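User: For my dataset I need records formatted as: sequence, then structure tokens, nothing else. Please produce one.
Assistant:
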Amino acid sequence: MDIVIKNKHEILIKGNIKDVKDCEKIEDTIKEMVKDGANSLTLVIPKSFSFPSTAMGIMAKLTKKQAIHFSILYGDKRLGKTLKRLELDRLFTIEKI
């Protein structure tokens, strides 16, 4: 998995999210961008069918405590189903690419 920061509000996650290291990279990137002043972030996830619960938790916490708005653009329909099944569309904007 690779992370590409497209601009100050967009993160592209390339490849499959597989392990704890990937999870930590996502979390660190989100935290750093918020620290640098981003008040909204879009995560573009074109291929992965999984997304770490710890990253979801960080995003939910930032949404509730700091009013950070998150959008998740997904490519794999399995990820979209999971996010909606967890009712994360109540917290974040979730759309298919």
